[in-house]
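Re: that backbone. Tokens:
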């Protein structure tokens, strides 16, 4: 077999069918589109060029990033803007053989600026419908509550979402984790679950293992987004492994936000060794230097993951998804067939 510098790993990762389960649509706003939308909407950006925007992407922590991420999102005003943003991501995902995407959106970032909830959801969901029809790329939408705001605002956002219940599969929790424990949103999540939404939450990215436990107990989540700091609590790790609670891990994000010092210190292999249900995801790819395949490749190189492990991560991504059992089985068989043909 022909060998390339990384022994064909690049091609193998590209060939693997994958699901992306931790992706903020606002975090896919590339500087080029940011400028185009600013021009279209008559908004002045505090940057003079795309290069200047990219040069500003140096973050010491999560809050540093969030400040820029919310500022960038200010160019999104019209339904068409949300469509263009989402369609651009779906095309990139399709090109990387992502077969299914579960996508976060942050309505409060937009409604706080006077943008109608309907503009946000209509633009995003039309692009998702087009991606399904034209690219065969399936998706689910997960509405995140901003945890730096109070629960009353989360509850008001949930009310706005109820008429769109058929277009939104789940609720999540994102933004500044420190000092904003999951329990702050117990009632919002209780009502969301009662209305039929699946529950997920960011926990253990900058916050302690106790926040991961609190997300499980107070919010009854079916997945943990990030979850890195769960490793500090052996009993919690045992529970996550036994219950097969998926962790949506984001390697390049973790490096850019200084959650890990560098990729060689990334806990992904340790998580797998502990029997955790780990998936690889891109989080905010326009800000963190790579989409899904770049995340797989970076972590494979840094931790010398073999093909069997990469195929397992792809399988986990479908297992951990909100897809129905039949669709999961079909996609898992496709992963097996790629893994098998590479092994022969
Ligand atoms: N953590 C918390 N909030 C976020 C993130 C993240 O990684 N990305 C976008 N919002
Ligand atoms: Zn995230």
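Recovered sequence:
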């Amino acid at each position: 077999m022909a060998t390339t510098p990384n022994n064909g790993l690049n091609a193998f990762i590209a060939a693997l069918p994958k699901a992306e389960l931790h992706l903020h649509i606002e975090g896919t706003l590339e500087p080029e589109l940011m400028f185009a939308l600013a021009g279209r909407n008559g908004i002045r950006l505090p940057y003079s060029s795309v290069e200047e925007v990219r040069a500003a992407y140096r973050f010491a922590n999560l809050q540093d990033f969030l400040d820029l991420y919310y500022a960038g999102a200010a160019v999104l005003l019209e339904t068409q803007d949300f469509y263009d943003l989402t369609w651009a991501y779906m095309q990139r995902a399709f090109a990387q053989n992502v077969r299914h995407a579960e996508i976060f959106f942050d309505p409060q970032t937009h409604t706080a600026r006077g943008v109608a909830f309907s503009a946000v959801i209509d633009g995003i969901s039309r692009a998702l419908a087009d991606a399904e029809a034209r690219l065969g790329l399936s998706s689910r939408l997960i509405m995140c509550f901003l945890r730096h705001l109070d629960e009353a605002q989360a509850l008001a956002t949930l009310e706005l979402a109820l008429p769109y219940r058929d277009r939104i599969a789940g609720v999540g929790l994102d933004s500044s984790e420190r000092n904003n424990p999951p329990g702050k949103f117990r009632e919002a999540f209780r009502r969301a679950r009662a209305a039929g939404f699946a529950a997920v939450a960011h926990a253990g990215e900058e916050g302690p293992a106790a926040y991961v436990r609190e997300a499980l107990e107070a919010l009854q989540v079916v997945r943990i987004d990030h979850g890195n700091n769960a490793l500090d609590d052996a009993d919690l790790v045992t529970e996550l492994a036994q219950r097969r609670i998926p962790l949506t891990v984001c390697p390049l994000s973790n490096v850019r936000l200084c959650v890990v010092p560098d990729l060689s210190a990334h806990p992904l292999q340790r998580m797998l060794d502990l029997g955790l249900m780990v998936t690889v995801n891109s989080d905010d790819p326009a800000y963190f230097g790579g989409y899904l395949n770049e995340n797989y490749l970076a972590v494979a190189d840094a931790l010398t993951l073999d093909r069997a492990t990469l195929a397992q991560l792809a399988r986990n991504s479908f297992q951990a998804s909100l897809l129905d059992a039949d669709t999961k089985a079909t996609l898992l068989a496709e992963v097996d067939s790629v893994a098998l043909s590479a092994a022969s």
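The chain has a mean pLDDT of 97. The pocket of hypoxanthine (ligand 1) is lined by residues 24, 27, 62, 69, 174-175, 202, 205, 253, 283-284 (CB under 6 Å).
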